Amino acid sequence: MEEWSGIRRRVLVEKVSRRQVLRETGLHWKTLRKILQHSEPPGYRQQKPRTKKKLGPYLERIEQILSEDKAMPRKQRHTAKRLWERLKEEGFTGGYTAVKDAVRELVQRTQEVFVPLVHRPGEAQVDFGQALVKLNGTLTKVNFFVLALPYSDAFFVQAFERECTETFWTGHVSAFEFFGGVPHTITYDNTRVAVSFLTGTKERRLTTAFCQLKSHYLFQHRFCHVARANEKGVVEGLVKFTRLNFFVPVPQMRDLDELNSYLRKRCTEDQQRRLRGQAGSKAQLLEEERKAFLSLPVSAFEACRKVSTTASSLSLVRFDGNDYSVPVQWAHHPIVVKGYWREVVLVSQGVEVARHPRLWDDEQVSFEPLHYLALLEKKPGALDHARPLAGWILPECFHLLRRRLEAEREGEGTREYIRVLRLLEKHALAALRTAVEQALRVGAITRDAIAQFLLPREDWRLTTFSLEGHPHLRHVRVATADVRQYGQLLGGVR
Fold first, then answer.
1. Which has the closest alpha carbon to 415: 369, 451, 447?
2. Mean pLDDT score, 416-440
3. How confident is the model at residue 461 (pLDDT cuts 50, 70, 90)?
4. Which of 53, 117, 235, 487 has the greatest number of beta carbons closer than 10 A?
């Protein structure tokens, strides 16, 4: 470069003749002309593309195969190596590198280019992702809900067993409470939870569940075009960010409650970060963005799916592929099932009749043993074979009570034992256990005797009558009772 600039200076500034420079340096006159035209070596400049004698006839074939691949699953598309092998079968004699370069050039030529977008305050994007978590020692796949605010880049994450209507609702409710307001516009993909079916390029038939959520919080919705997830690219990126930063290494938690507490903490901590090109942290931008939020409704949204059904002859109600028990007196009655994310509530005639933890595996049954005790009292012979009582662990004193009752009350001991168990319908197990232990000590083992131990005992000091404030009662004298008068009354009875 130093020699290049020296030659230029001698000719253009010092006015040395070109012939003299050529004699001194031995350069070709074309090279000298190039030096004088360019302030630095221009490098090699190809005038026209090189001809591809071997590959040229096969370029259209490569384009055809790559075009057909677009309709195939990503994992079943041609690699450059597989293309090369196919072309060899069709007569191609060139090498693998030529095919690989041609494929790279064709792919780059067809790659989509995107326009940078501006994000206004109060706009949000929603999506679900999947990750593995160790819950109570078991490796489990969870679905996590992400609501992102592109303006401030703040986001909220909550993990669930499954992506469904109930978790879709719960994720929104939790996110709105976390941010202290409702974004005025939310963008979604075409999830089946929100979209029943597409009626056109832009028209969609919304599900009732989504309309209920939208009507309660009054936000505007926007759906991406089909197969255009990049239209909500912020939340797509945050799903990946969440998986790589919050779920690596695989979290080890007792349950989902602990996992969600961890995720909520990480979301809060992340708000202290400052993004490149932003004047303040995420938390500062979020405070500014809250001014564009809609206010939270006065009443909370009830994130439960309601289904009307009828309890079977086994006192079971089916919901979402699983069965839940109700007390036997509600068998064959109409039941309204309220399916929340964490629990299932069963209601009949406006009265709550049962409540169970939500089952997420398929074809499972949730029994409450107390629901069947009234029926077992009428059919005591089924006690040892009753499926609802299988696995019901009771304190040892209950087994001792049953043995004594069956030994002392032949034929009725089992029924009396079931009557004792029915005290659990009104009293806690710990209280009944104490009562049974007291009954066994004194030998009063019937149901009625045990019930007496469950009655609250008043302090004797509270039963003493005080004359304070009643001075007129001080002059009252109560005569001592004469038991002989009672005998005279009995003697007069005929």
1. 447
2. 94
3. low
4. 235
For residue 188, the cross-strand partners are 223
DSSP string, 372-424: GHHHHHH-GGGGGG-GGGTT----HHHHHHHHHHHHHSTTTHHHHHHHHHGGG
Q: Tens of pLDDT along 232-243?
A: 788 999 999 999
Mean per-residue pLDDT of the chain: 88
How many residues in total does the chain contain?
A: 494
What is the average per-residue pLDDT within 37-42?
82
Do 226 and 200 form a contact (C-beta atoms < 8 A)? no
Instruction: State residue 1's pLDDT score.
Output: 73
Give Cα 117 to chain centroid, integer Å: 29
What was the pLDDT predicted at 336?
96
b vs e for 207-228, b when ≥16 Cβ sit within 10 Å of the residue's Cβ?
bebbebbbebbebebebbeeee
Nearest C-alpha neighbor of 88 from the set 49, 54, 139: 54
Measuring CA to CA, which residue among 214, 144, 207, 232 is closest to residue 176?
Answer: 214
d(CA 146, CA 239) in angstroms, rounded, equals 7
Q: Contact, 332 vs 310, CB < 8 A? A: yes
Q: Residues of 98-107 as b/e, b for ≥16 C-beta within 10 angstroms? A: bbeebbeeee
Q: How many CB atoms lie within 10 A of CB 303?
A: 22
DSSP track, 250-279 = PPEESSHHHHHHHHHHHHHHHTT---TT-S
Q: Which of 385, 371, 382 is closest to 335 using CA atoms?
A: 371
Residue 448's H or E segment, with its range, is helix 447-454
pLDDT at 334: 95
Map tokens 């039941």 to a residue: 335
Position 115 scores a pLDDT of: 66
- pTM confidence score: 0.72
Q: Is residue 243 a contact partner of residue 129, using CB atoms and an 8 Å limit?
A: yes
Q: Is the dihedral of CA 27, 30, 32, 38 positive or negative?
A: negative
pLDDT interval class at 228 (50, 70, 90): low
In degrees, rounded to 5, the angle at the alpha carbon of residue 382 between the alpha carbons of residues 376 and 386 is: 85
Look up tokens 């005998």; give the residue: 487
Average pLDDT over residues 274-293: 86
Angle (CA) 275 280 286, round 5°: 90
Phi (first) and psi of residue 321, to 5 degrees:
85, 0
Examine residue 183 and say whether the peptide bond preceding it is cis (omega within 30 degrees of 0): no
